[in-house]
Recover the amino acids of this structure.
């Protein structure tokens, strides 16, 4: 009999037919309107009355009835786990085998100091190699004689891009036939480099926009050839060395060992001077203010050049730098929401780049307004900044005002702020004032007549900033270690030690010494090599080592897993983003950045490995600085990982006996064994297929013993010990039990030693958990939670529902095995069962009913009065078990069985919202900065591609226009567009992408739910007029389950809000707000921004390409005829350096 339909204002069933209106006809509170329990008391007082039997046949179950059902559920789960889980029996097995293992202790302070020392030794070997290279490079260049008449055929070297260019018939070098000077090498595959290499030679990479045949480049190739022998000798002394690289200030990269360049499918825009490691090594940190002239005289094309120039300038900044960007005409204003200098990190630079595109030209030029704004920004001492090099970069089309009064007020006589001026576009203005500004303020003047000059001229200011470093001599020769970034040659994530290389030549006897930086020497260290120095498996599944730098970015962390990487940008994951941020972790982070030692036990939140759950846990953090570096190392240990087991299988007969239980021939009687894919031996072939991996392992063990020197004895002994121990569990518990009696699909045990045993053998066919227990969500969560942890099958809302008719679906229930041996507590294993979903759903209905196992379902007649239950009244009563993440585990509704594993809001949004609003659940939101997203379709934002200037008919008819700056600039735009194809594209980064459909990095917002503060059992009302519903919720003791009984909804008018759990695309937290409360950081310990002997007389020059009327007329005729212009010879821009 169904509960009568309800309407707002109508009477509702109650004791003795007493007519009372339904309370509250207003809408239910939304997700943000959570009601404290005190506000629920008036409603709760009614519930005992509503639960009493009335004239109607059924009433909502009373609270004590539902508590009785909950106890029955708890007892059933506990009984099954006691019989089949075998927790107690496994404890006894460990004690019976006590002579086969020792209990070792993890001493956090000793561990972290040892690992820090090992990392320091590793990096110190690279430092010594760096110093040898830098010293040799300076001596080679000093001894080199400059050759004005040097020719390409005089230089023999391996051009790393030669193979790629040979494959390209349109390559310029193929056309010129310059391959005569290029060596042809043979390569061998080297797994250490993940590349083909040649150890006898170096390779040379020259940027696409630099002419290889220029005198500067040929001389550079000539003297750097001598580095080859030093590279080879370094490798002889330290065979673990990876890439050794010299990045020249001219743009030439010479690296060892030689390897073909990984050329992208589009134009290769790699330039070593824009790499994070080069920028960090070439200059000290910078405080930079970029001001852009947006007066009306700035034409559309010139403004476009300025926008692109600013974006390229931003790319020369690293996370150690601070920047702001402003536009000016009569007044100056920031282009973005940033009102002061902000850290030049990836996300802040993205804000600037987007804001710059919105600049509009209008008004008159006001240099004074722009410079006063910039100086005020640099003088603001109330904000975090680099506090080293200070500079102003001004982009303009020209002007006559020198604003000397501004410089006298803010910068003279000390000239602590350098001024760099950029004359952009083709124009007839006098550039003398711009040159004077730069020269009078220790800066440099540049000209950017067209797009081809942008990349070169927006990075050469680094030469000027390098002067104080060169003049400081040995004091500035300090090795710096970079942030994590992606190696351009495919090595993966690396850090690089950098050391500047100085020009030691003098112009003549008695002359001042040269103040040019020659380049930066770098040596890569792969993160995997550093990880190998950390304890692998003695810390347990939830213990780990991490390291951070002075910015708080992680160098090592188990959550450092970028899904996609862009080699143009460093990988900058903050420690507080790698973990769930809280005050304790902020304090730990600050202490580590300050280079202190420390130890702290905290209660904190952690995400599960599958990122569906949140657990509140206790962790011990211990940290020390890594000497001689900018890094600090931390160790995280749960209390239960203070001790671990170390097998001692000296009895070879026992080794053989236990090993036999790994053979597939034993699986039918002993259950299927999955072994963790660990590096047990050097010669063990890895495989993603566990069956194949086990086969490889068995074949190797037939050739070597567990005590072999080529094997990890700790891993092997523990693996074999756990094989024997789990087999004894089969023998003592599982083999003699009938799983079908209790509707179980499987029983299982997983261990720290790397064994996962699933019984019976056929159950392994449906086993989908990770064979590495340390990477299995059920394993790690069971260790962190007391009691029984339920894990329903994972369902994505976009996938089809579970097909119960064809597949047997199981729900995992697991619990940790805790041992106490001599007062030392540890958790070396997890055991559990796999429930048959359909059978347990039926059992669930019976346990939450008013009958015993022997009784038939109670049916109420018209004259009898009884309470509804989950079995008989499943048409009117919804009964569910939901886990601590809010995912459906069991339901009395048959049509919901295929929704098991889904977030409950997708099943019953109304009820889930009520549970959240009544504090049964708490929500945690965070951001994943390492996600990968499909590329967005290009958008033009309502404008032509890249804002190409289109001349009007009037322009064509005006003879003066044909020789004007606009026509010439248009020609250069088209000409360089052939080279820099990305100028006409929506995203300039695509030029270096490997594929049109390549995924790009993005930010994803994650939301997890976990149990709130409510631990009691109580009833409540979902208050929504005629759609109001009664519900009861109660936590099941010793489990991660919430038992919920509710009236089924009679209408859908209360679908006011739906809680979302699925990960969603996001722009991340609002950057404009974040910069107001920047995270603590420290810059490098050294700063070289001033030297009294600096010669500032070399402060600028300009060069432009003279327009050719003939070429312009030909171009315009082609445009008028609608024909594509024939590609012109490439124009090469190169650094004009005084060597």
């Amino acid at each position: 009999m169904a509960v009568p339909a309800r309407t707002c204002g109508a009477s509702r069933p109650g004791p003795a037919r007493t007519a009372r209106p339904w309370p509250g006809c207003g809408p239910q509170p939304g997700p943000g309107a959570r009601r404290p329990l005190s506000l629920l008391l008036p409603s709760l007082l009614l519930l005992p009355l509503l639960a009493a039997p009335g004239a109607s046949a059924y009433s909502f179950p009373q609270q004590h009835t539902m508590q009785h059902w909950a106890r029955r559920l708890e007892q059933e789960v506990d009984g099954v786990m006691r019989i089949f889980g075998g927790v107690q029996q496994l404890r006894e097995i460990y004690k019976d085998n006590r002579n086969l293992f020792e209990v070792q202790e993890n001493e956090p302070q000793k561990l972290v100091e040892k690992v820090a020392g090992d990392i320091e030794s590793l990096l110190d070997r690279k430092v010594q190699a760096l110093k040898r290279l830098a010293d040799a490079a300076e001596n080679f260049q000093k001894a080199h004689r400059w050759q004005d008449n040097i020719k390409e055929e005089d230089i023999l070297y391996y051009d790393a891009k030669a193979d790629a260019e040979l494959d390209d018939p349109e390559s310029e070098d193929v056309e010129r036939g310059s391959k005569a000077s290029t060596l042809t090498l043979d390569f061998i595959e080297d797994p250490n480099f993940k590349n083909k290499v040649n150890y006898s030679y170096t390779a040379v990479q020259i940027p696409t926009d630099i002419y290889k045949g220029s005198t500067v480049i040929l001389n550079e190739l000539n003297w750097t050839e001598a580095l080859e022998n030093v590279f080879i000798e370094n490798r002889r002394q330290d065979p673990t060395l990876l890439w050794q690289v010299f990045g020249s200030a001219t743009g030439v990269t010479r690296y060892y060992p030689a390897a073909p360049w990984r050329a992208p499918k589009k134009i290769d825009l790699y330039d070593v001077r824009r790499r994070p490691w080069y920028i960090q090594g070439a200059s000290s940190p910078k405080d930079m203010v970029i001001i852009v002239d947006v007066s009306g005289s700035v034409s559309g094309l010139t403004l476009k050049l300025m926008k692109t120039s600013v974006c390229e300038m931003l790319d020369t900044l690293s996370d150690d730098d601070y920047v702001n960007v402003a536009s000016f005409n009569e007044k100056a204003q920031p282009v973005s929401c940033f009102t002061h200098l902000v850290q030049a990190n990836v996300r802040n630079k993205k804000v600037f780049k987007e804001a710059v595109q919105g600049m509009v030209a209008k008004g008159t030029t006001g240099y004074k307004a722009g410079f006063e704004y910039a100086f005020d920004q640099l003088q603001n001492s109330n904000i975090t900044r680099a506090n080293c090099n200070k500079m102003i970069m001004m982009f303009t089309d020209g002007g006559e005002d020198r604003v000397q009064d501004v410089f006298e007020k803010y910068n003279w006589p000390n000239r602590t702020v350098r001024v760099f001026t950029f004359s952009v576009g083709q124009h007839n203005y006098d550039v003398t004032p711009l040159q004077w500004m730069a020269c009078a303020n220790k800066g440099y003047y540049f000209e950017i007549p067209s797009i081809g000059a942008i990349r070169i001229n927006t990075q050469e200011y680094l030469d000027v900033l390098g002067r104080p470093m060169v003049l400081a001599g040995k004091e500035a020769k300090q090795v710096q270690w970079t942030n994590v970034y992606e190696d351009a040659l495919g090595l993966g994530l690396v850090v690089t030690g950098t050391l500047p290389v100085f020009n030691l030549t003098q112009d003549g006897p008695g002359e001042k010494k040269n103040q040019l930086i020659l380049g930066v020497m770098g040596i890569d260290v792969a993160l995997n090599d550093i990880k190998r120095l950390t304890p692998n498996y003695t810390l347990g599944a939830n213990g780990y080592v991490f390291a951070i730098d002075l910015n708080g970015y992680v160098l090592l962390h188990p959550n450092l897993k970028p899904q996609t990487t862009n080699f143009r940008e460093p990988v900058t994951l903050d420690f507080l983003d790698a973990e769930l941020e809280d005050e304790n972790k902020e304090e730990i982070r600050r202490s580590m950045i300050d280079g202190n030692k420390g130890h702290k036990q905290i209660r904190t939140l952690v995400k599960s490995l599958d990122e569906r759950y949140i657990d509140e846990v206790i962790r011990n953090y211990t940290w020390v600085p890594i000497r001689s570096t900018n890094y600090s190392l931390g160790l995280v240990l749960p209390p239960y990982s203070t001790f671990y087991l170390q097998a001692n299988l000296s009895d070879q007969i026992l080794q053989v006996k236990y090993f036999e239980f790994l053979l597939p021939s034993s699986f039918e009687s002993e259950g299927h064994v999955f072994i963790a894919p660990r590096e047990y031996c050097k010669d063990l072939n890895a495989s993603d297929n566990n069956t194949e991996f086990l086969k490889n392992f068995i074949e190797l063990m037939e050739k070597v013993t567990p005590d072999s020197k080529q094997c990890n004895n700790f891993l092997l002994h523990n693996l074999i010990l756990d094989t024997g121990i789990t087999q004894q569990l089969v023998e003592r518990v599982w083999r003699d039990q009938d799983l079908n009696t209790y509707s179980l699909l499987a029983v299982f045990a997983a261990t720290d030693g790397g064994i996962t045993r699933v019984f019976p053998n056929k159950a392994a066919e449906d086993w989908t958990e990770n064979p590495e227990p340390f990477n299995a969500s059920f394993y790690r969560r069971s260790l962190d939670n007391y009691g029984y942890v339920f894990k329903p099958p994972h369902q994505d809302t976009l996938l089809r529902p579970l097909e119960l008719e064809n597949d047997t679906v199981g729900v995992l229930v697991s619990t940790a095995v805790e041992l106490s041996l001599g007062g030392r507590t540890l958790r070396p294993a997890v055991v559990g069962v796999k429930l048959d979903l359909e059978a347990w759903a039926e059992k669930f209905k019976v346990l939450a009913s008013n009958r015993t196992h022997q009784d038939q379902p109670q049916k109420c007649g018209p004259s009898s009065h009884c309470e509804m239950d989950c079995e008989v009244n499943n048409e009117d009563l919804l009964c569910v078990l939901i886990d601590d993440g809010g995912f459906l585990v069991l339901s009395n509704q048959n049509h919901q069985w295929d929704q098991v594993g889904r977030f409950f809001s997708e099943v019953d949004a109304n009820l889930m919202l009520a549970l959240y609003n009544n504090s049964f659940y708490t929500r945690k939101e965070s951001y994943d900065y390492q996600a990968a997203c499909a590329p967005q379709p290009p958008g033009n934002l309502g404008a032509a591609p890249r804002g190409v200037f289109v001349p009007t008919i009037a322009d064509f008819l005006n003879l003066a226009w044909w020789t004007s700056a606009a026509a010439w600039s248009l020609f250069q735009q088209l000409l360089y567009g052939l080279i820099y194809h990305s100028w006409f594209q929506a995203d300039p980064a695509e030029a270096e992408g490997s594929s049109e459909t390549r995924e790009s990095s993005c930010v994803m917002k994650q939301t997890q739910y976990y149990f709130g503060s409510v631990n009691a059992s109580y009833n409540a009302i979902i208050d929504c007029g005629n759609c109001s519903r009664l519900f009861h919720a109660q936590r099941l003791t010793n489990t991660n389950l919430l038992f919920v009984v509710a009236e089924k909804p009679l209408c859908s008018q209360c679908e006011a809000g739906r809680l979302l759990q699925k990960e969603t695309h996001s722009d991340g937290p609002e950057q404009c707000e974040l910069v107001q409360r920047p995270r603590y950081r420290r810059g490098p310990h050294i700063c070289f921004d001033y030297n009294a002997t600096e010669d500032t007389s070399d402060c600028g020059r300009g060069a432009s390409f003279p327009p050719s009327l003939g070429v312009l007329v030909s171009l315009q005729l082609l445009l008028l005829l609608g024909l594509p212009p024939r590609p012109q010879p490439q124009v090469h821009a190169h650094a004009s350096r005084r060597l």
Observations:
- The chain is about 30% helix and 20% strand.
- The chain has a mean pLDDT of 84.
